[in-house]
Design goal:
about 300 residues, alpha/beta, eight-stranded parallel β-barrel, 13 helices
């Protein structure tokens, strides 16, 4: 029951100040955040790739308040692409982007976000990789999917994310599961009202499996964003039933979580991609990681006690 409380705290400026000021916070944040700068993060990317894993990179930042911040977010991704080019990893190192950081919530934000993200997707294609559009709260979905559709006309590898806790997601999966599409399925990590989203964990899990079945039976490329052992096992069975080869879908997990399982899946021949976030605006991302899994929260609380 703590999840909704933590998600509410993720939008609280007061809690941001308290958590950010706690001496224990930075060492715990470092478990989930690769670094504050691209220079600190590139060695993590290189090491991850050397271990047979793939990556998707997220420059942290969301809920921006003016167009200048949106331009800075765009430029941060362009800097990342420039740093990735010498590694020559191609699609083994893609990027994940929250359109809110590109100005989506500002007046005229849809067009602003489309303009800014197009520059990034073009640059990513220039080094042989691609971008996946992260999904945020339900009020942004129609805009995000419209931008995704427009980008795919020129850059068909552009990925989208769907969240199983939303009632609409099964229909979205049917629409997205077309040839050439890339769709990451996650459970969802925002506080959503009961009018649009399942509130019970068991219902969210059931919806996840229904959505995954749609994606596996479709013509696109499913990306399974989960750390749940049961879902991972079911995913493998659904892929087998759908006649998919190991390179026709992939697993995705967060940096710092279930690292041994990441290596196990890669050793079995699965494509295993690690979601690596970096930057100074880590608070909202960090709080959602605590809300998602009791183990994450327990880890943080144990650290508070041990350092208290």
């Amino acid at each position: 029951m703590l999840g909704p409380v933590i998600l509410a705290a993720s939008r609280s400026d007061k809690m941001r100040r308290i958590v950010s000021a706690a001496p224990v916070t930075k060492p715990v944040v470092n478990r989930f955040i690769a670094g504050e700068t691209v220079q600190e993060t590139i060695p993590v990317v290189r090491d991850t790739a050397d271990r047979g894993l793939e990556v998707t990179l997220d420059v942290l930042g969301e809920d921006i308040t003016d167009p200048a911040e949106a331009l800075r977010a765009r430029d941060a991704y362009l800097e990342l692409i420039e740093a990735l080019e010498p590694l020559d990893l191609g699609v083994r190192a893609e990027m994940s982007v929250k359109l809110s950081s590109f100005g989506q919530a500002l007046p005229g934000g849809h067009d602003l976000a489309l303009k800014n993200i197009t520059s990034v997707v073009e640059a990513a294609a220039g080094i042989g990789t691609t971008v996946t559009l992260d999904m945020e709260d339900h009020t942004t979905i129609d805009s995000t999917l419209a931008i995704h559709s427009e980008l795919r006309e020129r850059f068909p590898q552009t990925g989208a994310v769907v969240q199983s806790y939303l009632f609409r997601t099964e229909d979205d999966c049917r629409a997205l599961a077309a040839a050439g599409s890339r769709v990451r399925l996650v459970k969802g990590a925002y506080k959503e009202p009961a009018t649009v989203a399942y509130q019970d964990k068991a219902e969210v899990d059931k919806a996840y499996i229904r959505c995954l079945k749609i994606l596996m039976e479709g013509e696109g490329y499913p990306m399974i964003g989960s750390h749940d052992p049961r879902i991972i096992s079911i995913s493998q069975e659904l892929a087998r039933r759908a006649g998919r080869k190991l390179d026709e879908y992939e697993f995705q997990m967060l940096y710092g979580i279930r690292e041994a399982e990441q290596q196990r899946l890669a050793a079995e021949g699965h494509r295993m991609r690690v979601y690596i976030a970096y930057g100074t605006d880590w608070y909202g991302y960090f709080m959602r990681r605590l809300a998602e899994r009791p183990a994450n929260l327990a880890f943080f609380l144990r650290s508070l006690v041990s350092r208290g």
